[in-house]
Write a structure and sequence with these properties.
Low-confidence stretches: 1-27
Strand content: 5-15%
Helix content: 25-40%
Distance between the termini: 21 Å
Shape: globular
Order of helices and strands: EHEHEHHHEEEHHEHHHHEHEEEEHHHHHH
């Protein structure tokens, strides 16, 4: 997922550039591809660059499900764009396939790279070489409805700090009755659940996905602990029945309805709620583990890289360097309520006094991103071992069997 998130709406009316016209691009003009679901923040960054640089960038939005194939095809035909922005989770596959330019010397010598969020450094490094940087970030957090907390006799300013407290608080909110429920998750959405459910497992000590067939998968107590908590809430009717079949369509809207006490979400919720529900009384906190103080998050969003074979590599490299500058981070990201990818700029003039934004910045620093090949097969497909495990454990009740089956299937996929 990652941030392969079907719940995020937003598209860019793209200026589509046919590959056959690539030879007509002037030397000082750059072409850049961005996946459609991240086109809006990508355009903000590119527009800012274009206002102060002679080398202009023409941005093209590519449907999310076409990015992988299109980039591979363009590399084979010699029509690669100069820059590409894509879901960070596919970075390992792209690096291994040789589709990206090695930026190690450039970034290692850049002092600003030292302040880059570690998760982005990790996901963009392969065999000791660096191939990109975080571009437009997102991260998972836990949201709670303060008005429902107050109505249920809970302290509206105190978020749950453990998985057990999530269940306890959700149970008390459900006791309000009617169509008010304590907890929400999209039970048929693979990406939604890796984004907001797996961090609680990681916080509680689990390792999630294997890099190869000899690696570990779904180990530690956290996986079972979280699945048991979800099953308890499902069995007690704390979760609405339609959650079982929700593919992500209600990932955000369920909580925004005001009828859900607690739900996992992303940093994108801040700007959405400010725009569409400005008076909604809610809080954000880090996703908890088994004990207070154990926290994690799934770091998502896009990375930017230079495809191998691009015709304007030098200028494209300049853009990658610029992405880490104060101008890009503050005027391009923070000013537009987007998280920065530099830890030293997390607290800035645009975030001061905004506890929600600061919480998501903390989540970004504390988060993880799985560095694996074949992520789509292991997690994101509708029949992946990950989502089958989640559904079998929670809705059918076979937690141990679900974990064992998923582990075996993930290892088989990782062995390819």
């Amino acid at each position: 997922m990652t941030r392969t998130k079907p719940w995020i709406q937003g598209s860019l009316i793209a200026c589509l550039i046919a590959a056959s016209a690539a030879t007509a691009v002037h030397a000082e003009d750059l072409t850049m591809w961005v996946r459609e679901s991240a086109a809006d923040p990508g355009k903000l960054m590119v527009d800012l660059w274009n206002t102060s640089h002679e080398d202009k960038i023409t941005l093209t939005a590519i449907p999310d499900n076409q990015v992988v194939t299109k980039l591979a095809t363009s590399a084979q035909s010699g029509d690669s764009p100069d820059l590409v922005s894509f879901d960070l989770i596919y970075m390992p596959d792209f690096m291994k396939a040789g589709l990206l330019t090695d930026l190690t010397d450039q970034l290692s010598a850049d002092p600003l790279y030292a302040t880059h969020v570690q998760a982005y450094k990790d996901i963009a490094t392969y065999e000791g070489k660096i191939y990109g940087v975080g571009f437009t970030p997102d991260v998972s957090v836990l949201a709670w409805n303060k008005d429902l907390y107050k109505a249920a006799g809970l302290d509206p300013e105190k978020a749950p700090t453990t998985i057990a407290e999530v269940v306890d608080h959700a149970r008390k909110i459900r006791a309000l009755g009617g169509d008010t429920y304590g907890f929400w998750f999209s039970g048929a959405c693979p990406g939604c659940n890796i984004f907001v459910t797996s961090p609680m497992m990681v916080a509680a000590g689990s390792k999630m996905l294997p890099r190869n067939g000899e690696d570990e998968a779904l180990t530690g107590d956290g996986v079972k602990l979280v699945l048991e908590a979800y099953k308890t809430m499902w069995d007690e009717g704390i979760i609405p029945e339609n959650a079982e079949v929700d593919t992500g369509a209600n990932f955000v809207s369920a909580f925004a309805s005001g009828k859900i006490g607690i739900a996992g979400t992303g940093g994108f919720l801040i700007s959405l709620m400010k725009r569409e529900h400005p008076d909604f009384n809610y809080g954000l906190t880090l996703l908890p583990g088994a004990e207070a103080g154990q926290v994690s998050a799934f770091v998502g969003g896009d990375v930017v890289a230079v495809p191998a074979g691009g015709k304007n590599e030098a200028a494209a490299r300049e853009f990658v360097t610029w992405v880490l500058t104060d101008e890009a981070q503050l005027q391009g990201l923070a000013k537009n309520s987007i998280l920065t990818t530099r830890t030293d700029l997390a607290d800035n003039e645009f975030t001061k006094g905004n506890d929600k934004v600061l919480t998501t910045a903390s989540a970004l620093a504390a988060g993880y991103v799985p560095w694996v090949f074949h992520f789509a097969d292991m997690v994101n497909s509708d029949s992946s071992p990950w989502i089958i495990m989640v559904q079998t454990a929670i809705f059918d009740g076979d937690i141990d069997g679900a974990i064992e089956t998923a582990r075996a299937e993930m290892l088989a996929i990782a062995s390819k």
